[in-house]
Amino acid sequence: MKRRQFLAAGATAAVAAPIASPAIAQSAPSVRWRLVSAFPKSLDTLYGGSVELARRVSEATDGQFQIQPFAAGEIVPGGAAVIDATSKNTVECCHTCSYYGIGIDPTFAFGTCVPFGPNARQTNAWLTVGGGNDVLNEFYAKHNLYALPAGNTGVQMGGWFRKEINTVEDLKGIKFRVGGLAGNVLLKLGVVPQQIGGGDLYSSLERGTIDAAEWTGPYDDEKLGLYRVAKYYYYPGWWDQGTVISMMINRAKWDELPARYKAVLSNACAATNQWMQAKYDHENPIALKRVVAAGAILRPFSPAIMEASFKATQQTYDEINASNPTFKKILGEVMAYRDATSLWWQVSELPYDINIANLIRRAR
Amino acid sequence: MKRRQFLAAGATAAVAAPIASPAIAQSAPSVRWRLVSAFPKSLDTLYGGSVELARRVSEATDGQFQIQPFAAGEIVPGGAAVIDATSKNTVECCHTCSYYGIGIDPTFAFGTCVPFGPNARQTNAWLTVGGGNDVLNEFYAKHNLYALPAGNTGVQMGGWFRKEINTVEDLKGIKFRVGGLAGNVLLKLGVVPQQIGGGDLYSSLERGTIDAAEWTGPYDDEKLGLYRVAKYYYYPGWWDQGTVISMMINRAKWDELPARYKAVLSNACAATNQWMQAKYDHENPIALKRVVAAGAILRPFSPAIMEASFKATQQTYDEINASNPTFKKILGEVMAYRDATSLWWQVSELPYDINIANLIRRAR
């Protein structure tokens, strides 16, 4: 819909155009949306993404399209509640990991990431150019939602463990705070998955109620102080290997936006998507050095643990696939994308990053 | 500058507001810019970035801010000429690798990438959150320019060689089409750098006028047909390891844009920055398989060649630093950023990508 409004000459002349004539006046409906973030304000990168997004939209419309972010708990709790509130039009939109909705349908996971899926850049490629976001929105439409990627953490850490995990056997009986599909996968390896909010992780680890906890990466984890109560910091977080944060919008609210505001919002989401990744890529290296200096001990998951986790992931997928054809279809597409991309990665990003790591080390 | 224009009630009522009242009419000066791309239309990802950018700006302003892209050669030739034309206000803006301007000042390289610098995501982090873009714009201001990142190729390939290059000795006397600072570096290793346009690479390789040529990556290289005349395809391209394409704007033109259009343009550049990376990440894996199927033989540069190149790069930097304090200052910042980020990469992206490559291989 084109809504250019050519006004009477008198009104046009009153517009102070700093650059060029003709200046026209554009129809600029006042739109006020409430956004519920799945995250608390203390997570200034995750919650900060919604602030960044709202700022970009407001500035690109001279304040006519305003999105007001609310932190988790202010209107609704975080997690699946923000998706539900958006779906039901309690609020117009939310900024969240779609995978908080896997209790509704495991298919919600693909909007964020799934265990052993493509990394952040590969996921962006699938969503942005490979048709992935259209595939997701076909599914979201059934839940009255429209979504755009608007943030990413990159590869997260595998979590804080109170003792070393050297073998697959060592995982047995470990009470591990881990969310989503990874919990289902790790259950197959004897782990006892725990659901505990971020605010309780420190005390749970300190008291030994749990043995391990994963959150995101060094920058966010540091704020929880986990390095003081569980010093082994494992990597990589194979279940959060390019975690997308989505702008999810009530479908009717999206549909009724003027085309110009849709464009503004799409651009702002893409810009925020990039900003959040950049913010994490900037902060995590600094925070990693601090937590290591404070006593964190970095440990890779062993190849055997990675292999066992990979196989248990496939079993988990087979189980979901058996009863969920939409999940099966999208999983096939996502994993084919990952596989097709991996060869390219092995002659581009990977060898460059490996060489740089070695060259810097030898040059010291 | 806020330019909200509250019109008389009669005019406001005439605006068809599909969503909410009050609708106001915004001052929307008509801005028409000409953009000169450094790239030909056949490079639909590099040139396509300017089209994508222009589309995003237009849609977010209902066509009131229009940027018309011109391919290399249409108004000015590609390369440094587009930067010069923008600096002199022959055109309002260009979409280019800033490093085409290193003949003016080697400092122009940092807006794109420098040999053995940070990778694409790390560069984005430096530019977007780490203050890098402000540092660059301080320098650009001396050339009447303002720039925003608006595209990236990721790690490029190291080029097509007619024979295998196994040792540092094998590089001696090789006539290699390679641009920019990499040419200076490789000269120290006995390479004879050649400057040849993309359109002449095929025939030069076929006739043996040159022994090797680098362009970008599989998707672009395939179009030139280089795999038919030089089958050894080396990696990684350590001089183009996260090549930024910049939107460079004549400073006065940027300064006089209304705040809203600055915001629209900034968002569109960030969105395009992400789009181009996604497009390459989508297309390169597919094209890589095609060129390999057509006979290309993938070869890594040996550790010894990488090490010798790394050392020769440092010598090159030392020489430039000796007479160019701005280059020296920014180089120090960029390389400190790379080093600080490398440890984080080694516990996040790298181990994940390595594991995935191995797990996929073993699962087959």
UniProtKB/TrEMBL annotation, chains A, B:
Signal sequence extent: 1-25
InterPro entries xrefs: DctP_fam, SBP_TakP-like, TAT_signal, TRAP_DctP_sf
Keyword Signal among UniProt keywords: yes
Matches recorded under SUPFAM superfamilies: Periplasmic binding protein-like II (SSF53850)
Protein name, entry field: TRAP transporter substrate-binding protein
PANTHER family attached to this UniProt entry: EXTRACYTOPLASMIC SOLUTE RECEPTOR PROTEIN (PTHR33376:SF5), PTHR33376
Source species, domain of life: Bacteria
